[in-house]
Specification:
The chain is of the alpha+beta class and 362 residues long. The chain has three domains: 135 residues, Gyrase A, domain 2 (2-Layer Sandwich); 148 residues, DNA-directed RNA polymerase, insert domain (RNA Polymerase Alpha Subunit, Chain A, domain 2), CATH 2.170.120.12; 76 residues, DNA polymerase, domain 1. Helix content is 21%, strand content 33%. Strand 16 and strand 17 form a beta hairpin. The longest helix has 20 residues.
Amino acid sequence: MTVKNNQADFYKEADNFHCVNNKKAMLLSIVNSSDIIGDTHVGSIEMHCEVGMGHTIGHALRRVLLSNFKGIAPVAVKIKVVKGKTTTYAKHQFETLPGIKESVIEVLANIRKIYVKEVSKINQEIEVSNMFVEDDKLDNLLLSMIGVTPGPLTVSATEIKSENLEIVNKNNYICSLDEGTYIYIDICFGKSYGACLAEGHKFKPYLPEGYIAIDSYFSPILSCAYHVEEITGETHAYDKLEMKISTNFSISPMEGLQIAAASIRNNIGVIAGNIDIEMAKADDNNGDHLLFEMKVQDYPFAIRTRNSLLYNGITTISDLVTRSPEDLLALSGFGEGCLTDVLKVLHEGGLDLNMKITGKKK
């Protein structure tokens, strides 16, 4: 499945450019697509920006995406198995329990793969047997998962119930039970940044008996990479920045990029202080606005649409947006399908037909 997002959803001021000491810095356009790959949401985002700014923007966004995102993950687990008249608790990860196909370490590994997102804010910290010390900065939650049906049974994350958290990958496999076996699992979720090994959790010394601390990966961002290519045209050049972001579905790749950009803006704004920055709108249609000088082939038109425009001598966006729908339909080989494609792509970029560009070079 592929999802297309309007670039206006990314940054409301994408149509603006800033002039500092008469030097223009501008975000030309954003093209966003995302794919669902298993339990991973992979987004490919392309941005066109001023030459020299591609690596600067890409590196800054990647650093924030990988290190500054707060998320929720399992941090401790308590497992109890009942088979017949025998009740067994998991004391450590390097053991097996009667009636369960998997070893404890395999069950814990499957629990670590559970992705959740918060659906309601917790007004106060939930205390569980005083297991969380005051200097621990985690916002802690406890979820209980109870196997009420005896095996044979396949246990998945669907069994987890909570008013505060939503399980994103409900079909995540946890374990399989033999006939006549019951399992009771308490999962403690914590909220923090980045990742933390089981030995590194601050509350580990205060865990009640039966709880096993596990490695936790809190960040909703699973991976992030970027590539920069300098594009040189007849009248201008720009950097094409491509970012590939993978998330665990608690947020989308585009939402992650939005949050990262906002974080950078909020922090860098302190340095900028009260310095005024002259801003001009794209709607002013300045003749030297690089957006209008982009090549038709740089926009995501369908192949047939692009070929038809180029065949009829329409090579730049300025050539296109100044035409009317009637002008385009009169072109050779240009039909209603091509017109629909043109309008869709232009609207995603905040443009339209019948635009007037002042100062346009002849």
